[in-house]
From TrEMBL:
<feature type="domain" description="BRO1">
    <location>
        <begin position="5"/>
        <end position="379"/>
    </location>
</feature>
<comment type="similarity">
    <text>Belongs to the BROX family.</text>
</comment>
<protein>
    <recommendedName>
        <fullName>BRO1 domain-containing protein</fullName>
    </recommendedName>
</protein>
<dbReference type="InterPro" id="IPR004328">
    <property type="entry name" value="BRO1_dom"/>
</dbReference>
<dbReference type="InterPro" id="IPR038898">
    <property type="entry name" value="BROX"/>
</dbReference>
<dbReference type="InterPro" id="IPR038499">
    <property type="entry name" value="BRO1_sf"/>
</dbReference>
<dbReference type="Pfam" id="PF03097">
    <property type="entry name" value="BRO1"/>
</dbReference>
Amino acid sequence: MMLHCLLPGKLQSKKIIFEDVFSARDSATLEHLKELSSRHRVIEESINQSSFITEAIAREMSGGLTSHCLRDLQKLEQYLPLLENLIFHVDLVCGNQHVVRWISELKIRWSSALSSSSFFNLRGPKFFQIDNLRYELGMTLYLYAALLRERAVEILPTDLVQSATLFREAAGVFQHLANEVFPSLQSSQPVERPPEATPSICTVMSLICLAEAQAVTIRKAEEKGTTVGLLAKLHYGIIELLGEATAILYSSTRECKDISSSFLEFISSCKALHELRSLKYLAESLKIAEQLGVAIGVLRDSLINAKKEVPGEESWRSIFGKEIDAAVDMLRKFEHENEFVWHEKIPTGDELPRLQGNKIVKAIPYNPQRWERELSLKI
């Protein structure tokens, strides 16, 4: 079992009517702007849960898709190439004062799912406005990556291979945001922004997705009967990925000072869970190598640490509890065998072995798609 946190995908947006702001020179450009507005509206209504379309009609409009997550991904895939095309043409005249004013009149606003202040606002979520089309692109792509991750969780019980692929695709989109989209946005305007619109958080999300992809890959490896020594190293690879994510969160204090405590607990709980699993496999491999005393020391130490990290979230606590119970049971058997057969010394602290992780998953690079339509704007 894996811990799941779908909080990152709970974004909201406000209406944008492109044709009311941009002046088109011809009917083709006007149609493009209207289509952009229409595509944005269906995304906005879906994520804001303000759509009046019934489930049956929504399924029919999507070509028969039964998954709400898949339907939203489809809407985003139809919107993003149009938006990329508009940005391409606006960049050609980016210094024009008319264009600067038009973009500010769009009032591009998104909420945050990770900001702690968003959860204590009695008037609903706080919306952040940045007058830059790359903010709209970045937040839309962030939503797309978060929904890829959500879909990976959705199909996890039935298709491990596809689930791991989707986690890796999501990691690639987050990497693209961290490296290509949000750095330029950061330097343009010193305004308040949601944590999601920062390279640091996108890098953190990419590392989380890679850790989740590796966790799914481990489940496949367990089914194939992979050696316990390798499984221990693979779980420790997850700890290293999440350790990188944690280091970024605590070093980028300016960008990450307002992060939800639930999201931080998710990362620390995942790290602790995979540490316990890693050390259980290490103990098993040590027993096979006839080092039962060392195996007992590893298990004792792992349980002391794990019991300090039990999460508050009920579903996570349940998974954690089962893992602790399994480790306690293993320790009891090992201690019983050692007491009556081997009588080995039990090492502690620095005498215990230290693992080195093995990271075997990589992000699938994201390649932006642009519908190459000629646009003619009145400047």
